[in-house]
Design brief:
By secondary structure, this protein is an alpha/beta fold. The protein folds into two domains: 2-139, no CATH class; 146-299, 3-Layer(aba) Sandwich (Glutaredoxin), CATH 3.40.30. It has eleven helices and ten strands.
Length: 304
């Protein structure tokens, strides 16, 4: 099993570099190919049978933890969290080592922070709160918002969470991205390239006006929500171009299942409810990035 773990972790690094560095074809195939190849490799190495994690020593269990954490995070598949990582975490608790740090490929990780981050990623605030209560010393700086779900809109196809003015809570609202040309901007406040993309668009008055009218900025939940207050400030100063929150929850799939939320920044240009153009990442050649954005705008028929 130890050899298999090493094979997988090395494969993840090398395959990710190979696929995600390929020239972008604007169709979003790179992220999906990476996910497909990772799942294929996982099945090849571990099969589809339930693993008895309790039989493994601590170093092997650590490797199994890292593999399943990689799968949950990279593939955005919650089964790796609820079927595997929670079980491993209980075993780590019984062995009294769940608070410890561990190192993989010279990078330090923490079990408690890992599983807390995945609860946030998948919008499981109940379990995130319980874990924070249990491990205050480790998670004291983590932010968990108050969540308000409007049951009257649960049947709506397109839903996102709106950030409160003080950044302390989020409220479920219905949004319309199906009618007319739309621009969907997938952003990550902690990502340098997302910040650069927002900065460049904001500094281009014509583009900013177009985005205010046609764009929706979506922040998919990652493993921390410490950015909420900053986003609340942005929304207050830019009420026509707010940031909304998208947790990876089944109830929010709906019209958003056509988009990839595994990386940011991304720009999707929508016409007749179909993606006709996509920009993945941020080109540091600013004139090239601006040209690509204008091309997407033209593709969906937005007048300039």
């Amino acid at each position: 099993m130890k050899i298999n773990l090493e094979i997988f972790l090395n494969y993840h690094e090398l395959e990710g570099e190979r696929i995600l560095s390929k020239p972008d074809d604007y169709l979003g195939s790179n992220d999906m190919e990476f996910k497909t190849q990772l799942e294929k490799k996982y099945t090849q190495l571990f099969g589809d049978k339930k693993i008895d994690f309790s039989i493994y020593d601590n170093p092997t269990l650590q490797g199994l933890w890292k593999v399943n954490h990689t799968m949950a995070f990279q593939c955005l598949e919650k089964r790796y969290l609820y079927n595997n990582l929670e079980e491993i975490f209980e075993i780590l608790k019984k062995r009294n080592i769940e608070k410890e740090n561990y190192i993989v490929n010279k990078t330090t990780y923490n079990y408690v922070e890992n599983i807390f981050g995945l609860y946030i990623l998948f919008g499981d605030f109940s379990k995130a709160n319980s874990l924070k209560d249990e491990y205050q010393s480790i998670l004291k700086s983590e932010v968990i918002p108050i969540v308000y779900d409007d049951t009257s809109i649960m049947g709506e196809d397109c839903k996102l969470y709106k950030i409160s003015d003080d950044g302390r809570s989020i409220s479920l609202i219905s949004v319309n991205i199906k009618e007319g040309p739309k621009i969907i901007f997938i952003s990550n406040p902690g990502c340098y390239f997302s910040k650069q993309a927002i900065k460049l668009i904001s500094a281009t008055p014509e583009l900013m006006n177009i985005f205010k009218k046609y764009a929706t900025i979506i922040i998919p939940f990652r493993t921390s929500m410490s950015y909420l207050n900053d986003m609340a400030v942005w929304n207050k100063n830019n009420p026509e171009l707010e940031h909304f929150i998208y947790p990876h929850q089944d109830k929010l799939q709906g019209c958003f299942n056509k988009f990839s939320f595994s990386s940011a920044p991304k720009l999707y240009f929508i016409k007749d409810n179909k993606i006709v153009y996509q920009i993945r990442g941020f080109d540091p050649r600013e004139s090239k990035y601006i040209s690509d954005v204008y091309n997407g705008i033209k593709q969906v028929g937005i007048e300039i």
